[in-house]
Amino acid sequence: QQQVKQSPQSLIVQKGGISIINCAYENTAFDYFPWYQQFPGKGPALLIAIRPDVSEKKEGRFTISFNKSAKQFSLHIMDSQPGDSATYFCAASVISSGSARQLTFGSGTQLTVLP
Amino acid sequence: DTEVTQTPKHLVMGMTNKKSLKCEQHMGHRAMYWYKQKAKKPPELMFVYSYEKLSINESVPSRFSPECPNSSLLNLHLHALQPEDSALYLCASSLHFNQPQHFGDGTRLSIL
Fold this sequence. Notes:
The structure holds 2 protein chains of 2 kinds. Chain A has no helices and 11 strands. Chain A has strands at residues 4-7, 10-14, 19-25, 33-38, 45-50, 56-59, 62-67, 72-77, 86-95, 101-105, 109-114. In chain A, a hairpin with a 5-residue loop joins strand 9 (86-95) and strand 10 (101-105). In chain A, strands 2, 4, 5, 9, 10 and 11 form a 6-stranded mixed sheet that branches. A 5-stranded antiparallel sheet of chain A has the order 1-3-8-7-6, with no helix packed on it. In chain B, the strands form 2 sheets. In chain B, strands 2, 4, 5, 6, 9, 10 and 11 form a 7-stranded mixed sheet that branches. A 4-stranded antiparallel sheet of chain B has the order 1-3-8-7, with no helix packed on it. The N and C termini of chain B lie far apart (30 Å). The interface between A and B is medium-sized, with 22 and 25 residues.
């Protein structure tokens, strides 16, 4: 029930196209859904995050869509650029044991944007 | 550049060696985390410190020993590691437990 399922495993998009990565979860206690971007040789960087009381959040070219009833959320990258080529992880968390906000990560999507 | 600094960037050690990984942040964050990441996999949580006290140990083998000397520093002491421990070790911090986590760029560890 702690799992977050992410798809696709890899994605190739032409420059200027829309990249879409999907995640699904089971644990309805999750209350925070961040997306991380990781370049080779670097640590994950927080890209954008959403709470379950909001259906959509947009920051620049990046948009999270959240469907609470379906227990799904997705990342949309508009006007994808070669510099967006990276591995993207969705994640979810819940306050457990009244303390740590532990992140449950999806399996990752390797995005390649062709010039 | 990230605001969570990890040293060294690369480490090669033998199975009988003792070494330490260091993590430092000066953002006033009071929660700090160690993660292990294998190639093409998501990070796996190892330890969580809150206000310099160990809060979570995800059943990590005793050959990994964390230490939090103060609110800005986090160490991971390594001893008698196995080849399967070769991975990227990531440190993260957050203002408090319920705040977003910010990661360092990690230490790439290779066990011979």
